[in-house]
Amino acid sequence: MRKSVIIGEKGNNMAWDDFFEDEIKCSECGTSDMVESYGSGDTFALFILDYPEKDEIRSGKAIAGSVEGILKSEISKLRGSIRDYSFTTIWKHIPNGNEKCRDIGFAKTIEEANKFPIIILMGKLATELFINQKYKEFSGLQVTSLYLPDTKIFVCPHPKTLFGGGVGEFRLALGKIMNEVKECF
Ligand SMILES: [Zn+2]
User: Fold this and answer.
1) List of domains in the chain
2) Per-residue pLDDT tens for 54-67?
């Protein structure tokens, strides 16, 4: 069910449809406005966010636009690079109120997370689903999840909390987590 995108050379005259060999669709609601995880397979840590928005859907990646911008700049402030990490979302399309769509996304996320020694739960939904707790009480801390018993798991506020004045909380948590993660590399 992976989407294979073949990027054509400039000026060639392949039809647009030829670029998409196998479009991914949600098996519950049928939408093809989906995102895939973002980042190289060589990374050790996976950030799990809640859901994609318009910018992400447009790019087909789990993070794009303002969320990608915040993470790029905050990680580089901590002397890291966004290229050292991978990113995914629980919902693989814009939330539509259908819990089955969310559960399909969650199952896929667990599958993805299994490939990483470290995961970082970002924000409310990821934290509630993986550890059944409120993220605010575990911000910056290491936790355990029955879904991933062998994985190092951390909790961090969602990057968008920066817009609501949560800069301090976000930076503190991310800084603590990055320190722990660096020790594992
Ligand atoms: Zn769906």
Assistant:
1) 30-184 (3.40.470.10)
2) 999 999 999 999 99
